[in-house]
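Workshop exercise sheet. Pairs work together: one partner reads the sequence aloud, the other fills in the structure field after running the prediction. Swap roles for the next sheet.
Pair: D.N. / O.F.
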Amino acid sequence: MSGTRERLVQLLTLTDLTSLELSDTPETIAALCARARRPDPTDPGVPPVAAVCVYPWLVKVAAAEVAGTSIAVASVAGNFPSGVATVAEKVAETERAIADGATEIDLVVDHVAFARGAEQALFDEVAAVRAASPGVRLKVILETGALGDPERIRRAADLALDAGADLLKTSTGKGHPGASPEAAGILWAAASEYAVRRGRRVGVKVSGGVRTPADALAYLEQAEAALGAPATPATFRIGASALVDALVTALRP
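Structure field:
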């Protein structure tokens, strides 16, 4: 396994430990949060993850389980995973999640409508959710694997950033190709140029198929090359589940 212990630990602190299954229950989310707090129960020196990411109806459970810790509670929103909903519905779902304790929102946009030319609609839904979530980190899921075309991915990224996204997220991890270095590179280019143009540092979240420490390290190196600085939870995230256990295994002697 390549990579120093420090880099593997850093990856844990940048991970959104995720469970987005329709079979999720309060009990499974409580167990998820226990993993988030202590990724390695045998080693208290292994730090907690950045966030837990759950469905909106389980936000209250997650918020209670991680209360008093550094762990953020991220809720998907926007009729995850399809993104097909009215702007009013997306705003209402966001507001409910925040009221229940979400401190981050992972908004899925209607990528099908966007691919058919509804550019203003993508901007409007992100802007509306941004307005409804002051002080809450907003990650916008573009479903890059479904968009496919690099120019289309870049256009979606630019619109989402101009509408107020804090991080651009590659994918839902549901039914479409997940993260790829190529798509992440496009998002980083958009984020870097936006930071220069608007004077606000934004970031990227890779999600969908990142399962091994080697893959995660490659994305981390890509992130820090784009940032020109160490990655932090404000600028880079990895959405994953199995990755956490793989990192813990790699950290053990």
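Discussion prompt: The chain has a mean pLDDT of 96. What would you look at next?
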